[in-house]
Design brief:
Layout lengths: L4 H26 L22 H37 L11
Length: 100
Amino acid sequence: MKLNKTSLGFSLGIVWGLGVFLLTIWIMIRFPQGEHLYLGMLKNVYLGYSVSFPGAVIGLIWGFIDAFIAGWLIAALYNLFSRGEGEAKETKVEPVAEKE
């Protein structure tokens, strides 16, 4: 089986980007007094990110890019390393004639 690199990249990118976005919005509603300690650490990873609505949009964009690249690489490596298994299954074996 071969994985489509672009499809896996988009799938993971959408899930991760929306996850960062929704988590940021949820933290803003749940802790209105200030930043949440662990989610605030994302500003060390994603340039321009903060626990705010503009930061949530920036996190959505960076999260999509980050996970798209990861998904693309995962699919490329999977296809590279699983290639040998698929070729072995397609090999035809000819029957051996019996000696009389």
